[in-house]
Specification:
By secondary structure, this protein is α+β, with helices and mostly antiparallel strands. The protein contains 2 helices and 4 strands; from the N terminus they run βαββαβ. The chain starts with a strand and ends in a 19-residue tail after the last strand.
Length: 88
């Protein structure tokens, strides 16, 4: 049985960002696929139920982006306004 988790991703500004986030999510054990939408700032992650939202978010954050379940409300707004992959 497959589950889908929708994440809100902040900090993506280009195709490289999308590839980085996709690769990070697909590297999480139990993840079958990740569809990252740059324009919407989201990722739909299909998994076997063992990939917890916090684990998915951590994988994205290790790449330099901010991630949270799409239905969660962030405590603060804003961000650097720069591409996380190019900021270094």
């Amino acid at each position: 049985m497959s589950n889908t988790t929708l994440l809100k991703i902040e900090g993506m500004t280009c195709g490289h960002c999308v590839r980085s986030v996709s690769k990070a999510l697909e590297g999480v054990p139990g993840v079958q696929s990740a569809a990252v939408d740059l324009a919407a700032g989201t990722a739909a992650v299909v998994h076997d139920g063992t990939a917890l939202p916090a684990t998915l978010a951590q994988a994205v954050e290790e790449e330099g982006y901010t991630a949270s379940p799409a239905d969660a409300r962030p405590e603060t707004e804003g961000g650097s306004g720069t591409c996380a992959c190019c900021a270094g």
